[in-house]
Structure formats: C-alpha cells, structure tokens
Amino acid sequence: MRKFLLCAVVFLSAAAPAAASESLTVYGFDVAQLQTFILATYDGAGQMDVIERNDAAMAMAKEIPPGRVERLMPEHRIPSRDPRVPDRWEREPVDFAEERAVFNFRPSRDGGLTVTMRADLVANPGMWRRERVVSRDCGDFHAYARYAQAFFTGGWGSGLALEARNGRMYVADVLEDSSAWNAGIRAGDRIRIINKTPADSVALDYFGRKYQWSDYGKPFAVEMERPDGERYRAELSNDYIPAQVGRLKQFFAVGETWPGWTREEVEASARRWVSPQEKRARENVPAVSSSGLEFDDAGRVASVVPASPADLAGVKPGDVIVEVNLVKFGDMGAAKARETIEKRVASRLTAILDLKRGGSTVTVRVKKPASARLGQKIKGACVQ
User: Fold this and answer.
1) Is 257 helix (H, G, I), strand (E, B) or coil?
2) Does the pLDDT at position 272 exceed 70?
3) Long-range pairs, 116-120, Cβ under 8 A, ≥24
4) Angle between helices 142-153 and 31-41 (to 10 degrees)
5) How far apart (Å, rounded) are the C-alpha atoms in residues 224 and 208?
6) For residues 264 and 348, what is the distance between their CA atoms, to the nearest angstrom?
C-alpha cells in the first residue's frame, strides 16, 4: 500500500531560498485518518522517525550532517584582550542536526479538517539551552499538498507524484482520470525529458511548481521510459482531477465518502492557464452568476435563481440592497457591489448583505453551502 500511494516531497538544501508552508483541507475524515494517510504517502515518512503525534500536530525527523546548518547558526563576538588585535566572531557549535517535517491540524470553518505542513532545520536537537530552529519553512510541500488535496477532494494539476532515485526522476503515483493517467503514465515509469530539457537536471520542487501542479501552467511534453525499457512520449496539461473516491474507500476501508469538488468549483478557485481559443470562446458566452442574484443599478433585486446561494440565504425579489459587507451600496455602486458579491461567493467566502424589505432591514449571508453539500453523504465515513 505504501508503494501504491507513495508521493515524493523534496526538501530544499540549507542554501536554497525558503519556501512558504502549504495547507490542504479534507472533509469527512478525522485527524487519525489523515495522519495515517500522510505516513503512507509522504515520501519522507520512510526516512524519518515520528517524534510527536497527537490530535493537534504530528512531527517527523531525521538526522542530517551538521554542516548543513553550521553556517546558519548565530555568531557571537569574542572581545580581544589585545587592543592591537581585532575582535573575532565565532558561530555556535553544532554537534547534531536534524530535518523536521511538521504537520499541524485544525478544524476549518466549513466543517472540514485543515492540515498545515512545513519543514524546519534544527541544530542540537534535544540539548538543553542549545537546541535552535535555524530555518523554518525550508522545505517545499507544494507538490505534496496539491497531490493530497486532489486525492481527497479533487483538484487541478497533471496528476503526477514524483520521486528521485539515484539522481533520476521517477513516477511514484498517478491520480486516476488525470491527464497523466489518460496519457498512459503509470507508477514506476521514468521521466527522461521534459519538453527539451533532460529531466535529471530539473529539481523536483521546480518541476512541481512550474509544470506538475501549476494552476496556470501551459501544456508540456515528457519523454518516458517504462521499467521494461519501452520509451514513449506523452502530452500533459494541468486540468481538473476528480477525487480518488475508490482509492479512498479502499485505503480507509469505508463504504461511503464525499465525492469531492466538481470541475466548476475547482475552476472557480484555480488561476489556470487559458488558451487563446478558450479566451475567444469565453467572450461569446454570457457570464454565469455564482450567487444566483440579479439586481438593478438601484440595488433592487430583480430575480433570484432557485436553490442558489442567494435563495438559500433568504434573498427575495423586491428586496433592496442597502449594504454589502458593511459598505453602503450607494458608495460603491452597482457594478462594484456585483463584482464583490460574485467574487466572494465564487471563492467560497461570505457576502454579507443588508436588505430593505418592506419597512424593516434584514441581514443575510450569501455563501456556497459547502458544509450542507457534505450532509449525509459523508456521515459515517469517519470510522476508525
């Protein structure tokens, strides 16, 4: 099962620039289940020891050469006793060093579970008054976070999870129904060339951000080699990847799980690359309202689409919009108000509307009902 789900995450060296921490949110699974998934799919888990595991956090560590952190240690001035000799500077000594992968868990606002992940470099771990975290967010979790997010909820990318073996780039896993899967790429295949660049000269983290899991990356070509030596070429693109429902049921031994985000929901939050042909096609297609709310320049609601976020929030035809997120409608104008409402609803945020209805004012919150969609579909999925 480990090999079946293996996903590679490459830590940057101490000399590389820091990378921001990454996060993902899952629905219908608890902390223990998500920790089990991470231990099975995170490539570093096979090389690290779990040093902390509870309902709020999980940390893994492995020993690294002290030389990786020595130059990051703070310097202290040693005063010279001879006025003719300048003071000298010395760094704190490093006896041991380790690399840590830290995963923090917390409930999300829409009823899910969010995990934030980062990598730290630690000097002299466990030594009283000498342990020091010399570098935070020094690892690149971009590829792993996107892989895991797509696995649980659906996402956007090429569907490849990679690992480095003996300086070569191999496929560790392929998400089903992704562009990589549909192109025939399977776990164990080796990537030889990316476009016209030898893959062995490309860092995994760079490939992950630039090509493999890029919201707006252009299509790219890879030359592959199967374990039996057969070579082939594949054209890949970043596109919608559905949640791996069947694999989740098998991995967690559950009978039912949430089906994940739809293509429309993923596209609304992905800054994806759009071809010139698609741009021209979009210009001839009328915009679709995310909120289901239509109003005139005076703020009077003309129509509400049934079962839309506005309808579920209680907006009715004839209501007059007075404020949008505490800003008066008259100050922002109809165009800005419409843009604000649609952007917030499309991004799964809340648009707070003060409405004049008859002789009274009512306040409604317009938002896509993410937790409502989960409903009974995921009830009972969190089994130990």
Assistant:
1) coil
2) no
3) 116/21, 116/22, 116/23, 117/21, 117/22, 117/23, 117/141, 117/144, 117/145, 118/21, 118/22, 119/11
4) 130
5) 17
6) 12
Domains of the chain: 2-78+86-236 (2.30.42.10), 293-367 (2.30.42.10)
DSSP state of 376: G
Tell whether the model's pLDDT for residue 6 goes beyond 90.
Answer: no
- Ranges assigned E (strand) in 286-347: 293-295, 301-304, 320-324, 327-328
CA distance 36 to 299: 51
CA 136, CA 21: separation in Å to the nearest integer? 9
Phi/psi for 52 (5° steps) reads -155, 135
Residues paired with residue 164 on neighbouring β-strands, in sequence order: 169
pTM of the model: 0.63
Q: Could you tell me if 293 and 353 are in contact, meaning their C-beta atoms sit under 8 angstroms apart? A: no
Q: Mark residue 85 as left, alpha or beta (left: phi above 0; alpha: psi -120 to 50; beta: remaining).
A: beta
pLDDT, residue 135, reads: 79
